[in-house]
Amino acid sequence: MNTDRDEQVREYPFRAPGPLEPAEEWAPLRKGCPVAHVRLPSGDQAVLLTRYDDVRQVLSDPRFTHNLSAEGAARTTANEAGGVFERQEASMLTDADRHQRWRRMIMKSFTVKHISAMQQRIEAMADQLIDDMVKQGPPLDLASALGFPLPVWVICELLGIPGVDRDKLAYWSNTMLSVTQYGQQEIDAAQAEFKAYLTAHIVAKRANPGDDLLSELLAAGDEGQGLSDMELLLTAQGLLVAGHETTSNMIGKMVAMLLSDRRRWEQLLADPSLVRTAVEEVLRFDANAGFGLPRFITEDIEVAGQTLPRGTTVICAMASANRDERTFAEAEEMNLARSPNAHLTFGAGPHSCLGQTLARTELQTVLRVLLRRLPTLALAVPTEALSRRAGLLVGGLEQVLVRW
C-alpha cells in the first residue's frame, strides 16, 4: 500500500494557463499525488482524483452517488442550492433502483436507432444555421450562431417543446450549473421560473400528447408504469440542461481545437472519413471540460493504494484522466485517427451519460456540415485571445470568432 500522502490542500477548480490548455497541476498530480486534497468554492474540502484508472473505478462503482445533498457531503458552492448536484429533489433519481427504472424508461429515446433517425433532421438544422451565418458574413461568433441554437433545437424537438425562449433557457441552465456566477436570490428566482415553465409544458402534453419523449412517459404513466410528476419535471429539466449545455459548449470548443492548428482542419478536409474518430479525440483532448463529476463515498474504499473513508466527497477529473499517459499513448498530442479511444468524457458505470449517442451524432453532423459548407473556416482571433467561461460547472468558451 502506498503510504506517501500529500496533505497540501489546493484551491479548486484550478486556473488554466490558456483557453485550450490543461491546468498545470494535472500532470504533477497524476505523477505524484493521484489522491489530492482540495478546497472547493464553498470552503468545504474534498478529494480530487486525476488518474484514469482511479476515476473510472469510482465512477463505475454503483455504491456511490452524485447526490451532494447527502448529510456530510461537501458543497461545491456557498449557495445553498447553487449547483445542479446539490438540489434536494435530485435524490429521487440517485437511488439505485429508482435510477435504473428511470434510465430504462427513457433509454428507448436515446438508442442508436432512434438517434440515427434524427440525424437527417439535425443535418438540416445545421445547414439552416450555416445559411444564416453566410448571409450575415464574417467575422461572427460560431458559438452563438451555431453552437448554442443547434442542441437547443434538437433537445426541444425530443421533448416536444415549441419555440422555447432560447435566452431564457440559457439563463435557467446556467443558474443550475452555477458555481460562483450567480447569487442565491438569482438562482432561486430562475429555478422557480424554470419549474413553472416545465410544469405548464407537462400539463399541456398531458392534455395534447405528441410524438415526443414526454408524451411517451405520460402514456406509460396512464398505464401505471410511469414516473411521478416530480420525476417527469426532473427528467425534462435535466435533459434540457444536460442535453444542450454541454453539447453547445463542445461545438465551440471542438471548432476552436481543430482550427487552433490548421493542420488538423486540413487533415479532415483531405479525409472526411476521420470525422468520427476526430470527434472522439476532441472529446478526450478537451482541457476545458469543467468542474468534474462529484461522488459521495458511503463506504470505505481503496483508491490508488489509499483508503478513502466513508463520508468523503470525491471529485473525478475526467479531463485529467483523459490525458493519463498510462492509458493513452502520446496523451498530450491530438491524434484525429486515435482508435481505440476509451475516454471518460461521458463518465462510466450506472450514471454514465445516457445522451452520449445524441451528443456524438450532433458533433459529428456539425463537423461534417462545416467541412462541406465552409472549408476555408478559420479563427478570426489568435487562439490565446479566446476566453473561457467562468463560474459554471460546465466548461466552455465565451465566443469563438471565425471567418471564411
UniProtKB/TrEMBL annotation:
SUPFAM superfamilies: Cytochrome P450. Keywords: Heme, Iron, Metal-binding, Monooxygenase, Oxidoreductase. InterPro entries: Cyt_P450, Cyt_P450_B, Cyt_P450_CS, Cyt_P450_sf. Its cofactor is heme. It comes from the Bacteria. GO terms for molecular function: heme binding; iron ion binding; monooxygenase activity; oxidoreductase activity, acting on paired donors, with incorporation or reduction of molecular oxygen. Coiled coil: none annotated. The keyword tRNA processing does not apply. Belongs to the cytochrome P450 family. This is Cytochrome P450.
